[in-house]
Amino acid sequence: MNEALWIAKTGLDAQQTRMSVVSNNLANVNTNGYKKGRAVFEDLIYQTIRQPGAQATQEAQLPSGLMLGTGVRTVATEKLFTQGGFAQTENSLDIAIEGRGFFQILMPNGELGYTRDGSFQLNANGEVVMSNGYAVQPGLVVPENALTVTVGKDGTVTAQLPDQVDPVQLGNIQLADFVNPAGLQPVGENIYLETAASGAAQQANPGQNGVGSVIQGALETSNVNMAEELVNMIETQRAYEVNSKAIAAADGMLQFVNNNLAR
């Protein structure tokens, strides 16, 4: 009987984890470039009482075995890198990625971070940075007297300066791609870090080598589907309730046995 209690307890833990993932998705429904997560579960080790295929008699074989499961556990929280929607902002420094790829960001510790959040701004030195101040790589500096800044689909950045007919090229926005984006490590601030599971970053200009193009004056919105997450939340709540009832039922059976033994 104690086995049922522990099995149901693992179910409670698993559904609590799933609820945390769903809550995080809903909390970031308006976060630029956010990619929704999902909890992945696996069943725990089984107790084999009778092995399938064992000899029941000298001539007969067991067609199925007797194996008792010991519950469930959360094995991963996977990020789903499907394309989010686009919100038109008409801001020249708002850039969205259409397709695969990540913007490269210089972290304070000197490492490269990667993001889908293209809501860029200028700092006091004219450098193009994220809203948290981290600079885009390769670095871009916009002249103080620039009238307009244009970003092409191939990542070419140009500026129109006063008293000049032809625009001046400031540089290029390069994107990074990974064999397994789901293996990236999210660290907050809309930034991911490279890991052994993601593979090494592969830099390319937008629109080349399978990397997506960039769109100026737009931002990629979260790929969270609120209706889907609300359904997931209801499913999780009901599963949690069922596991709670399993614990209550096992407790009632133990109480029945104890009452009978006390007589």
TrEMBL record:
NCBIfam families recorded: FlgEFG_subfam, flgG_G_neg
Subcellular location field: Bacterial flagellum basal body
Chain segments annotated as transmembrane: none
Protein name: Flagellar basal-body rod protein FlgG
InterPro entries the UniProt entry points to: Flag_bb_rod_N, Flagellar_basal_body_rod_CS, Flagellar_FlgE/F/G, Flg_bb/hook_C_dom, FlgE/F/G-like, FlgG_G_neg, LlgE_F_G-like_D1
Alphabetically ordered keywords of this record: Bacterial flagellum, Cell projection, Cilium, Flagellum
Native species: Imhoffiella purpurea
GO biological process terms, semicolon-separated: bacterial-type flagellum-dependent swarming motility
Keyword Cytoplasm: no
The Flagellar basal body rod protein N-terminal domain, residue ranges: 7-35
GO cellular component, one term: bacterial-type flagellum basal body, distal rod
Family that this chain belongs to: Belongs to the flagella basal body rod proteins family.
Pfam annotation, one family: Flg_bb_rod
